[in-house]
Amino acid sequence: MINVPLFSSESVTSGHPDKVCDQISDAILDAALAQDPKTHAAVEVLATTNRVIVAGELSTTADLDIDQITRDMIREIGYTDPDIGFDADSVEITNIMDQQSADIAQSVERSLEAREEDSEDALSAQGAGDQGLMFGYATNETPRFMPLPIHVAHTLAVKLEEVRRSSMPGLRPDGKTQVTVRIEDDRPVAIDTVVVSTQHVAELSLGEIREGVKELIVDPVLAELAEQYDTSNTRLLINPSGRFVVGGPAGDTGLTGRKLIVDTYGGFARHGGGAFSGKDASKVDRSAAYATRWIAKTVVAAGLADRCEVQVSYAIGRAEPVGLRIDTFGTGKVSDVELQKAVNQVFDLRPAAIIQNLKLTKPGFKEVAAYGHFGRLGVTWEDTSLADDLIAAIG
Asked: 187-200 and 235-238 as β-strands: parallel, antiparallel, unpaired?
């Protein structure tokens, strides 16, 4: 019986079947945006034993070789061995992409405000690509303003991929990590359990896998955490199934958009249900999720709260959001109502404004399709330069 408060989050490597699909979807989107920044896309991918199906909607002037983009992405991930049932050269690719619905296109290109109010404001001319609700979250418990469990899970997964590509070539691309932390007074205090599962060649023994993963991956990560968190009793489970030779899309069918919690906050915050990969920024599932992270992180970086969750909601074809909510879980230095008023002054959540401010018509989505979209360096939605403006708006 477990009698202490625990919280767990997982991550997966780039070779996980669902992540293979996410990366192919975003590689196609990036290739289209490189030629046509006005591309509208909702690319969906299914991957199974030596077969990939590319479907969805794509409206672009770009000239794309979907087959080659898909093979290049599979090769980059590391699936190059024909003996494992999924490899870049022999995989069968079926392309059934279609044009974006004309009904959706007209509502995006000319918003409800533009149609009913004859608005001259360019940022009000573009409507949301769908209805829906999106959440962003930030916490000051880690330097990257991410919850500790997902932060450590991603760190382990990235390390697993690095080791697979360098010092343990007997490991294969598919892998998972999971981290359970102990919580006291709403703050993480200890790393309770670490789980690492990695695909491997048949010749590699379980003992060799466990020894190598512990020494090269887990121990270095836990050593960095030991200064701040109790790791003295951390339980370690490496390949607890005992054997993981068959993996990737040959072992489990992959789909775009099926790792939403890995992509976001590891379950520590709410999720609106919309996936990111393969969607251009006119789809608020993606752009507004980035914007709400931008806002939440700025709130916490400004010292206005220890934790912050932002929800925004839209109606298809309408530029202005229909709802905005700020929740600081009792950690705010001002009331959530005051904070929301300040956020409304500093941040513009109309889709065209988000796209402009976060520069979301440029390629670069493939790089965030694995290991989480948040807590990263060098992406616009992680910028906190508006922290002083937010403080000033509070007054």
From this structure: parallel
